[in-house]
Amino acid sequence: MMRLNEQARGVFIIAVTPFTDSGELDLPSTDRLVEFYLERGATGLTVLGMMGEAPKLTASESLTYVEHVIERVAGRVPVVAGASGAGLAPMAELARQMMQAGAAGVMVAPPSHLRSDDQLVNYYTQVGQAIGRDTPFVLQDFPLATSVQIPVQAIVRIVNDNPNCVMLKHEDWPGLEKISALRQAEAEGRMRRISILAGNGGLFLPEELGRGADGAMTGFGYPEMMAGVYAAHTAGDAEKAHDLFDAYLPLARYEQQPGLGLAIRKYVLARRGAISSSAIRLPGAKLSPADIGEIEHLIERQESRLQEMNR
């Protein structure tokens, strides 16, 4: 069974959860979506993340979706499953079920009431014990969504205290100095090495890679952008990575609008044939005709820019 570890790198796409127009899980679209992501360079998938509408799924739907994705992936890449929740008992049960289904690890974000370093360290120690030391977990650092600031010194303590914490999903903003500080802590022997994958829709991916990130764990309607930027950076061609990134940046920026980003991403994915419907399970935002017109304009300009680059 594939297990997530500290050496993980590449592009772990945060998968959307496809629904039908009536709001039911769309498993046939899930199959197409998995292939779409893998064909465009994903080296891992993450399901039931914040952009996967996890809180809108029932417990049985969550497990059904995870099992279906893992079955479709068939061991080609690792699958990480979101397990964040208010209580440790349901989190541990869900993590156990997902790992039994073949997940490579689970991702856990901190609850919003945590404030001090000691509270954060104690919480993740409890998480590490509750899910079992054989279950690798990803520490999700996303203050814009969780309202929880996780300082570098707290991350160092969490990593050192929990052998099964193998990855940081870095979504602090601004957060480039945090990556540098964590890699410095590793270099000085104050923290063991972990994988660091960047989020925030890839908006800072070239710079994050330059600071020591191992890749990305996020979503975008054109996942091949992140795969291409990572491949160019890994090959030592930073300028090519930036040029490719620049071609997609206007649409990536547009997709990062708070409250509307998922609707934009699902519209683009449906437009590209990856899913049948752009439906968001209620409550959720709905695009206006003006929104759609702007998206289409950005895609047209993006395609023209890419054609110019490939000449």
Using brief descriptors, characterize the structure shown.
311 residues, alpha/beta, TIM Barrel, 49% helix, 12% strand, Dihydrodipicolinate synthase family protein, lyase, 4-hydroxy-tetrahydrodipicolinate synthase activity, DapA-like
3D structure, described in words:
- The chain is α/β, with parallel strands linked by helices and 311 residues long.
- It has a single domain (10-236), classed as Aldolase class I (TIM Barrel, Alpha-Beta Barrel), CATH 3.20.20.70.
- The protein has helices at residues 27-39, 59-73, 88-101, 117-131, 143-146, 152-161, 176-187, 205-211, 223-234, 238-255, 261-271, 289-309; strands spanning 10-14, 44-47, 79-82, 105-108, 137-141, 165-170, 195-198, 215-218.
- The protein has an 8-stranded parallel beta barrel with strand order 1-2-3-4-5-6-7-8, surrounded by 5 helices.
- The chain is globular, with a radius of gyration of 19 Å.
- The model has no long low-confidence stretch (mean pLDDT 96).
- Keywords: Lyase.
- One of its GO terms (molecular function) is 4-hydroxy-tetrahydrodipicolinate synthase activity.
- Pyruvate binds at residue 217.
